[in-house]
Design goal:
Number of helices: 0
Strand content: over 45%
Order of helices and strands: EEEEEEEEEEE
Structural class: mainly beta
Oligomer: single chain
Distance between the termini: 39 Å
């Protein structure tokens, strides 16, 4: 069974930083691209960032590039999202998502998410 356990969310002031982590199990983590998706209160889901199986050429939502950094450690089956200069509008539940293949292909499995609250 695929499991994606995200952690690291919490309450932070505007301008602060957080590092999210997602520990994966139940599949060969190094064989799949992974993504982070967020959902703000009352809004739809928004793609944040994605990374292929090897960690190369990550993708970011244009509005987030420069503030968010995605990375992965295949030896630890863990996906990360480093967030800096956080803004009120970054408040959301952040989901760790597994893609269909090593090079994306569609989101097939979702974790339960971790809540990030940025106070203004």
């Amino acid at each position: 069974e695929v499991q994606l356990q995200a952690s690291g969310g919490g309450l932070v002031q505007t301008g602060g930083s957080l590092r999210l982590a997602c520990v994966a199990s139940g599949f060969r983590f190094g064989g799949y691209a992974m993504s982070w998706v967020r959902q703000a209160p009352g809004k739809g889901r928004e793609g944040v960032s994605g990374i292929n199986w090897s960690g190369g050429t990550p993708d970011y939502a244009v509005s987030l590039k420069g503030r968010f950094t995605i990375s992965r450690d295949n030896a630890k089956n863990t996906l990360y999202l480093q967030m800096i200069s956080l803004r009120f509008e970054d408040t959301a539940v952040y989901y760790c998502v597994r893609e269909a293949s090593s090079w994306y292909g569609g989101m097939t499995h979702w974790g339960k998410g971790t809540l990030v609250t940025v106070s203004s």
